[in-house]
Amino acid sequence: MDSWATGRNIKEHATNLCVELSTTLAANAAKIIEFDIQAFNRAPGRQHHAGQPPRRVDLANAELAERWLSQSDVQARMPDGVRMETEENPARPFGSDFRSLFLRVDELDGTSNAAATAQNWSTVALAFVWDQTYAKHVLAGGAIALPDGHAVSFTDRTRHRADGTPRPLEASVYLHKWDTYADRTIGDPTPVDVRTLGEIPDPPHDGEPDVVLINASAGTVRCPRILDRYPALLRSTSYRSLCAGTPITYAAARGLTGMIVDPGESTLHDSAHLFILAALGWTIMDLETRETINLIAIAEEFALVPGYVKALPPTVAFRQEKALELLGAVQPA
């Protein structure tokens, strides 16, 4: 694992932890999907979120995340320690004196995609650090790891106004490559080898505006809803896919995608890719009102709220205004 230089600020250290955790989880999930024929069996027990019921691979990765966190060297890397919430293991209530780094983790986003294709999934970690100046937890950064060995991370550099409210998001975005050929055993919390390939600049081009991804791969209602309300998408797009969200982060960051539509409300971890895209010049809007969303303000408002709470409204993300025109006029609900 590449280590951040000593003396870098705490947000970069937090981002480094996100890269380490997300890639370790991705390596474990890939191994389970490849070798465990029962990986996608329904898992017993209580479901703590409104998404698809957990599968065995979800719970196995949630257990691995806890094992990773319990390592003493992880806790020692942050001055006030580290606490974590995964999608399958919600965090306990926080006290008023809570100052630890807080990790919000989706141990496997896109389980339904993985069960159908063995691809199109991701592992996600977002980090929130205590800011003494504003007396609250603020977004530090995050990372999204993908099964092909890519990982994309961001470190927040957003400035605040005098009253403490955040300005529009500013962040540095980096591309990493984790070792997909490592000889690992399932459940190994040892960090996988990761190379940092460099900072991702703004994409070399703005993407094809009529290449549209709709976040509805596992939703039986979402796709008909979006196409009924935005019929222009059926006529004016050259490519549509129901696979969107965090699993398409790398393709979108490279500028291959024109527009991403999420017709449903979403949690912070399910929207982690939007922070990366906003840092790369994408516009993120409320799908219904067409008002620009201040992602940092939402992240700070929901930083310590239980992770199953839907923090973001339905959204549309794009790089060219022309892409927004493809939605056309919204039809009544």
Observed structural traits:
Myo-inositol-1(Or 4)-monophosphatase; 7-stranded mixed sheet; 333 residues; 22% strand; Fructose-1,6-Bisphosphatase, Chain A, domain 1; 27% helix; D-Maltodextrin-Binding Protein, domain 2; alpha+beta; 5-stranded mixed sheet
Quick description:
By secondary structure, the protein is of the alpha+beta class. It has helices at residues 10-35, 56-69, 72-76, 111-117, 222-229, 232-236, 249-253, 272-279, 295-301, 321-325; strands at 82-86, 101-109, 122-131, 136-145, 150-156, 171-178, 194-199, 211-214, 239-241, 259-262, 283-286, 315-318. It is built from 10 helices and 12 strands.
Counting DSSP E segments of at least 2 residues, the number of strands comes to: 12
Largest sheet: 7 strands, mixed
Examine the secondary-structure arrangement and name the CATH architecture of the largest domain.
2-Layer Sandwich
Instruction: Give the helix/strand class.
Output: alpha+beta
On the 0 to 100 scale, the average pLDDT is 85
Evaluate the radius of gyration: 19 Å
| Total separate domains | 2
Provide the CATH superfamily of the largest domain.
Fructose-1,6-Bisphosphatase, subunit A, domain 1
Residue windows where pLDDT falls under 50 for at least 5 positions:
1-8
Order of helices and strands: HHHEEHEEEEEEHHEHEHEHEH
Q: Any idea of the CATH class of the largest domain? A: Alpha Beta
Would you give the CATH topology of the largest domain? Fructose-1,6-Bisphosphatase, Chain A, domain 1
